[in-house]
Amino acid sequence: MANIKSAKKRIKTSARNRQLNLFYKNKVKRLMKEAIKAISEKKENVLELVKTAQKWIDKAAIKKVYKKNNAARKKSRLMRLNAASGKR
C-alpha cells in the first residue's frame, strides 16, 4: 500500500483509467467481431456495422487506448475485408 498522498491518488486514478480502457477495448472488440461476422455472412447492414466499428476505433485512439498506428491497422483490416466481400 502506498504511503505518500499523491501515490494513493494515483492508485485511484489508474484504477479508473483501467476500467475506461477495458470498456473501450471490449466495445471495439465486440463491434469488430460483429462486423466481420456480417461481412462473412453477406448481411445487408455490413456498411453500418463497419462505420460504427471505425467510429469506436477512432474514439479509442483519441483517448489513447490504442496507439495511432494500431487503430489505423484495425480500420484497414476491416475495410480490406469489406472490399473483398464486394459490399460498399
TrEMBL record:
InterPro entries found in the cross-reference section: Ribosomal_bS20, Ribosomal_bS20_sf
A cellular component term, taken from the record's GO annotations: small ribosomal subunit
Keywords: Ribonucleoprotein, Ribosomal protein, RNA-binding, rRNA-binding
The keyword Ribosomal protein is assigned to this record: yes
GO biological process: translation
GO molecular function, one term: small ribosomal subunit rRNA binding
UniProt KW rRNA processing keyword: no
Entry-linked PANTHER family: 30S RIBOSOMAL PROTEIN S20, SMALL RIBOSOMAL SUBUNIT PROTEIN BS20C
UniProt xrefs under HAMAP family: Ribosomal_bS20
Function of the molecule: Binds directly to 16S ribosomal RNA.
Name recorded for this polypeptide: Small ribosomal subunit protein bS20
Organism: candidate division WOR-1 bacterium RIFOXYC2_FULL_46_14
